[in-house]
Amino acid sequence: MPTTRSPRHGSMQYWPRKRAKKQTARVRSMKPSKKPGLQGFAGYKIGMTTVLNTQKNYLSKKGDTIDTAVPVTVIECPPLKVASIRFYKKNYYGLKCVNEILGKTDKELDRKLKTPKKIDDSKLNSINPSDYYDIRLNVYTIPKLTAVGKKKPDIFEITLGGKIEDKWAYAKENFGKEILISDVFDEGAQVDIHSVTTGRGFQGPVKRFGIGLTSHKAEKARRNPGSLGGWKAQGHFMYRIAHAGQTGYHLRTEHNKVIMKISDKPEEVNPNGGFVRYGLVKGTYILLKGSVGGPSKRLIRFNIAQRPNSKFTKEKPALTHVSLESKQRK
Q1: 252, 192, 196, 257: which is closest to 44 by C-alpha?
Q2: What is residue 145's three-state secondary structure?
Q3: pTM of the entire predicted model
Q4: CATH pick for 80-179 out of 3.40.50.1970, 3.40.50.720, 3.30.1430.10, 3.40.50.1000
């Protein structure tokens, strides 16, 4: 009989492995910050490159510095525009949106949502923030400022930090205005990434869970699990058994990613020939340390780190070089 073989990556690492409901990633939880302002931002993934970061050489007792090669992900972050202000109250089931004030929107947003033709701004003066439990902003992106090639913006909700009076003051000040990423994050900050990974379709257990192949003398298939578990009455199998199914296109969250650079000078990062499957960066962008899930041109959401690494030094990264080598296949 074939032996029982455990998946290499762990079948219970993420469960359930199902397709995301939509490409705009959902933020499941957000711990409010004491600092007033937006708690997150969003951008479109471009690709990866390499930078040289000057940092302290911890192996040297003289306090010397050393240049370290760091892989970074380039994310183009056009301004976010406030579409509406939402007011929440707490009830038996949790938070419920009880009031919403819509602002002036662009034609691009009208293609995605049915917005009223006339906006009544008189409601802003009649709001008492102490009557509500929470205030949040409904924002949308401006993809026409990028090389994504889409007209419809992505709309989503972002929480605000500070007391309820600070939230209302910030929402009222930026109502219908554009918000830049430099107003929300600084270089060297830790953020949590929310993205929808690249879809792989229906795949077998070897690629889906990383199980090994059975012996060539096995009775049945070679790319199937060696054991289906102990409980199989009435054809029942445990859900922990590695089976074929949906692979990729999952909602995933990565914690404590570091923003290496925030810049509005595309010529400093555009490689020769442009980025593969994207083109040239047109506006404001950030360099995020490490890789990010999802293909190019997909929306990436990032929020203030919920559990930041206390050992992380808050020094501003000192980048001395950004690779502009062509990313095209040679």
Answers
A1: 196
A2: helix
A3: 0.90
A4: 3.30.1430.10
10-residue mean pLDDT profile of the chain (330 residues): values are: 43 78 91 89 97 83 84 97 94 92 81 70 83 95 92 93 94 92 94 96 95 90 88 77 93 95 96 94 96 96 92 82 88
For the chain, how many helices (H) and strands (E)?
Answer: 3, 15
- Domain 43-78+185-199+251-330 falls in which CATH fold? Elongation Factor Tu (Ef-tu); domain 3 (2.40.30)
Q: Under DSSP, is residue 224 helix (H, G, I), strand (E, B) or coil? A: coil
| 136's tokens | 């949040």
Which three-class secondary structure state does DSSP give residue 238? coil
* Integer Cα distance of 138 and 130 in angstroms: 20
- DSSP type of residue 322: E
Measured distance CA(250)–CA(24) in Å, rounded: 11
Residue ranges of the domains in the chain?
Answer: 43-78+185-199+251-330, 80-179
Question: How many residues in the chain?
Answer: 330
The two tokens of residue 154 are 């992505």
Return the percent helix, strand and coil in the chain, to nearest 5.
Answer: 10, 35, 55
Please name the amino acid found at residue 321: H
